[in-house]
């Protein structure tokens, strides 16, 4: 029984004849639910913390629920493993990279199973290939193609056993080799597993107690959101908020997996609900703007005096696409004499040097006078589904930023967000300004 992860939802609790868990988890769960609990690197950073994780798991198992736990590697472990691969050979075989970096999760899955057993809870570890969690062959950044949840379910039914699943890893079926899902991928493992075993919800335990209106390190008055829609969370994650891997949110959205972000540092016997990521219809209070995100991994490229004629944009951006370089904001200025123009665009800072080299090498073909680049830029974005029905939302931001003397280098907008590119020196001022402009500050 393989669950193919295709758009359109999964068999879900309703199909299994189990009452749907009420949206408010403060309301008692039904007598028996099926849960996926995911714990990130800081939550399993040492054996003591793993013991704390086990207490959270025990609470749910004692309540009679079927529990599958997905774990990350101990914090810092994956970086260390990646570092060793680079040290061994700067250019290395991606299949062997996966064999090395998947090991971090093997350790924590085994340790958590041991600690649970010691607490008297039936538990068994599962590596990706044992479940199996199947992926495509893109080693290092593999995508899950299917999960057979039947083995885990059988162990729930026959032994009331907690499944401890190594996150981040899977198996490429044709070659039977271990694969990994890209950095932060255990969030995606957890959401995919929730869909595959028809669990009622996916609880992502992390070192913060939910999703905030912005980074609390920048704005101490940032508020924790009770709920955020899938669409908004997808934008927040893509635009710089680091709580969840972007793919996990995409998957939660298409599979309609109700996902909570909550803290593993809460008292295991008295945990708080955290933030629920859910359908728009399940959100009652609607702010125009829900959150402010920022991303420092941006670089700006400006080509001056480019010929203003058909085909020039293609000459610039097709080679970028061919080199797998994501271009985000694009502005074209029409010059006075209308024979040349300036084109400005942004790329991820990791692609900056490569993008410049490609442009320089096709300089004659594109025909530009100079190339200017900047990496001391930041993209600040405001996200909210309320933007669909309100006019002038972005205009207010432009005015507020102008009043603070912040120059905007580029702007993009879409249905539920807008972004501005500014000098990175103004990051904090801009984030704070927008956060209070849209009424997101916590009442003091
Ligand atoms: N350990 C992996 C990483 O650091 C996967 C994860 O933690 O989600 O990227
Ligand atoms: Mg993570």
From TrEMBL:
Pathways per UniProt: Amino-acid biosynthesis; L-threonine biosynthesis; L-threonine from L-aspartate: step 1/5; Amino-acid biosynthesis; L-lysine biosynthesis via DAP pathway; (S)-tetrahydrodipicolinate from L-aspartate: step 1/4; Amino-acid biosynthesis; L-methionine biosynthesis via de novo pathway; L-homoserine from L-aspartate: step 1/3
Species of provenance: Chelatococcus asaccharovorans
InterPro entries cross-referenced by the UniProt entry: AceGlu_kinase-like_sf, ACT-like_dom_sf, ACT_Aspartokinase, ACT_dom, AKii-LysC-BS, Asp/Glu/Uridylate_kinase, Asp_kin_monofn, Asp_kinase
GO annotation (BP), single: homoserine biosynthetic process
EC number: 2.7.2.4
CDD domains in the record: AAK_AKii-LysC-BS, ACT_AK-LysC-DapG-like_2, ACT_AKii-LysC-BS-like_1
Residues reported in the UniProt entry to bind ATP: 38-41, 206-207, 212, 217, 242-243
Keyword Kinase: yes
Chain ranges of the ACT domain: 301-376, 382-444
Catalysed transformations (reactions): L-aspartate + ATP = 4-phospho-L-aspartate + ADP
PROSITE patterns assigned: ACT, ASPARTOKINASE
Family membership: Belongs to the aspartokinase family.
TM spans (from-to): none
Keywords (A to Z) from UniProt: Amino-acid biosynthesis, ATP-binding, Kinase, Lysine biosynthesis, Nucleotide-binding, Transferase
GO MF entries: aspartate kinase activity; ATP binding
Binding, substrate: 78, 105
EC main group: transferase
Pfam families assigned: AA_kinase, ACT, ACT_9
SUPFAM superfamilies, alphabetized: ACT-like, Carbamate kinase-like
Tagged with keyword Kinase: yes
Gene Ontology CC annotations of this record: cytosol
Protein name, entry field: Aspartokinase
